Amino acid sequence: MEKVNGRVGLPLGRPPGKVGLFPGCSLEGSSNAFQSSLESVFRALNVPCDVIRDWNCCGASSAHSIDHRLYLALNLRNLAQAQRQGYEEILAPCAACYHRLACAQLELSGNPKTLNDLNAETGLDYGGRIVVRNVLDYLANGIGVAAIAARVKRPLSGLRVACYYGCLNTRVPHGDVNDSREYPMAMDNIARVLGARPLDWSYKTECCGASLFVTQESISARLVARILENACAVGADCIAVACPMCQNNLDTKQEEIRAAFDIPRALPVVFITQLMGLAFGAPESELKLQQSFVPFRWSEPSAPKSKEKVNA
Question: How far apart are CA 190 and CA 146, in angstroms?
């Protein structure tokens, strides 16, 4: 494993290796629109990305705080499954899965004794060399915005997008990440080449409450309200996300939160891959754009009439 600028993984700029998709629990359940739109986008880009066979839960936000060694073992198995199936990289669209896999990979590759002990305990033989990437890094830096721009058939002209990154995609605890931690731009750059207008705003990496949405709903509601208020204030037509938990929190109880905090209008919360699929010309049914609590509706601006037709 090479370490460049403090980042454990492939050197920046090197083409991605063979990639296995780690869907995690949410993409095969409540956030299946993320997986469906991601698969649609990859087909349009002619990018192969098969699901890693026999994956297991990464432990999400609880396992690593309750039993750290169990959390490492869970993710050791996922990393070993990817290695056994010939993958060099794991693509983890879920931000929580990405964070857990990337943190485990960093700890295991940096601590040979821990890696050897866990391999012995579990009967696995992981070598410590899998690269873990999130979906924004893979799209913007692996595939590249130029390749994305080349597939656009239906530019999202006039669509004002607040790109919301959340807490985890840029905050893996090592020396360097693929984007700014506090004001990332990968999703903004993708939205721009789709023809949309990404907006400057102050809440793109603020926390939405994550799992507090279940255990401490009042706290999460206040956090979500601040994000929605700011997105409305800058004139957003929608909020784009790359995290199942963020999409769930910003969307599912938006009506109640808007009423409680006097937020002036509803805002659709869509996955960036849904916007990509729309710009690539995929049917809305394939992208599941109407599956959310706040449906996303957008139509291409009408072409201006020619002088001949106006004067006819």
Answer: 9
